[in-house]
Backbone:
């Protein structure tokens, strides 16, 4: 069987960026950045074609990688958490360490056992370090079942990229770039809150709940001819990371202004609104973590006026500590986005009609979204990418719904 060739998206040109006194941008040429971006966008596209209905999780992982941050995937069993992590590692040709945690997991299982032979021969207490120290990506399933015996080691691994061996006194440098933690639920134990706080990106995943996405998932699982092989590398990730850091430190966009100030102008009002609604977002997250994700968004999707103004709305959703907070944040964003919120509601209406098997009404509802008049956004250009994304989602639902209608028609004609 011939494998589908992965198509590279069209190049997205950034406005002129001045990065004075920036060692990063002097090393990374525009062509290097653009080539790395296109490869990673292709990777994101493949993930979305293989892991249907979890676009938010895919985007969260891509941003975590470019920001060199960690991501928590929280949801019931069977929501593609492991598949997302391991598939991304294969597409990046990255070294990946995978382990399933339990409440009884001990340090030797994660970091490696002591070298008994060396102890007997030379009376030296040395550990045979596991692959966790060499891995670019670490995936720990059921991470919040971590016990106090290894909690501190994980905290230092995530924060400092080192492991302190409490027995031997060794300080070992790890190669870790991003840790992906998976769990069926949010940690309730107070002892685990410091670990949970290390995850700058948190995604709450749910089961697919409509016919069109389930059909697409079935097709992706059984009829897809996409070959899971490397299409990007960790060097591409590192190139965009360096570019993102340079944007925060020195980036100026011609005719628009400094990137850091634009982040402040767009993020501050939204965060104040969220705080007024009881969503706690710390100063550290605003100053450090969100800024990194904002710059990562620009590095990955382009330093365009629309993204400069709209990226905050995409990254702030990853701040939620619970599914309830995630809903509250999305509600606040909808209130800020006006027309976008209306289109989102219409898509939800169409999905509800799909679940009720009212396919014709659902088809009509999705088509209304695809026919939205973009000229209405002339005074709000930062909303354009979000509307375009919703229109693409609606178009996918149109196709999926049309397939369901044809299937139903074929059954009736038998």
Residues:
């Amino acid at each position: 069987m011939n494998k589908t060739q992965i198509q590279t998206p069209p190049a997205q040109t950034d406005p002129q960026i001045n990065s004075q006194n920036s060692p990063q941008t002097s090393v990374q040429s525009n062509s290097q950045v653009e080539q790395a971006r296109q490869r990673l966008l292709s990777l994101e596209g493949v993930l979305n074609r293989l892991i249907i209905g979890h676009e938010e999780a895919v985007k969260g992982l891509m941003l975590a990688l470019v920001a060199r941050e960690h991501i928590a995937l929280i949801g019931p069993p069977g929501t593609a958490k492991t598949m997302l992590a391991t598939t991304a590692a294969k597409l990046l040709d990255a070294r990946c360490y995978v382990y399933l945690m339990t409440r009884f997991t001990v340090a030797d299982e994660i970091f490696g056992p002591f070298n008994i032979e060396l102890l007997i021969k030379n009376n030296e207490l040395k550990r045979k370090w596991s692959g966790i120290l060499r891995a670019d990506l670490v995936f720990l399933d059921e991470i919040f079942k971590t016990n106090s015996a290894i909690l501190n080691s994980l905290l230092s691994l995530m924060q400092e990229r080192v492991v302190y061996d409490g027995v031997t006194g060794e300080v070992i440098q790890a190669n870790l770039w991003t840790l992906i933690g998976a769990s069926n639920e949010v940690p309730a134990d107070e002892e685990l809150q410091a670990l949970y706080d290390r995850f700058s990106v948190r995604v709450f995943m749910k089961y697919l709940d409509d016919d069109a996405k389930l059909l697409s998932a079935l097709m992706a699982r059984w009829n897809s001819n996409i070959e899971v092989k490397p299409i990007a590398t960790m060097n591409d990730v590192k190139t965009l990371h360096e570019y993102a850091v340079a944007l925060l430190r020195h980036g100026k966009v011609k005719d628009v202004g400094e990137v850091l100030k634009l982040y402040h102008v767009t993020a501050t009002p939204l965060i104040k609104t969220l705080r007024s609604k009881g969503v706690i977002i710390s100063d550290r997250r605003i100053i450090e973590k969100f800024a990194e994700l904002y710059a990562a968004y620009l590095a990955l999707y382009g330093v365009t006026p629309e993204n400069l103004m709209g990226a905050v709305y995409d990254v702030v959703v990853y701040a939620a500590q619970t599914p309830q907070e995630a809903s509250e944040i999305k509600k606040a964003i909808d209130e800020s986005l006006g027309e976008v919120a209306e289109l989102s509601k219409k898509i939800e209406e169409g999905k509800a009609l799909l679940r009720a098997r009212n396919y014709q009404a659902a088809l009509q509802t999705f088509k209304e979204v695809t026919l939205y008049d973009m000229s209405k956004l002339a005074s709000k250009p930062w909303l354009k990418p979000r509307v375009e994304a919703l229109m693409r989602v609606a178009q996918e639902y149109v196709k999926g719904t049309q397939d369901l209608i044809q299937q139903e028609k074929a059954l009736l004609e038998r």
Notes: Residues 1-13, 18-27 have pLDDT under 50 and may be disordered. The two ends are 32 Å apart (CA to CA). Residues 15 and 304 are 6 Å apart (CA to CA). The chain has two domains: 17-94+177-335, 338-413.
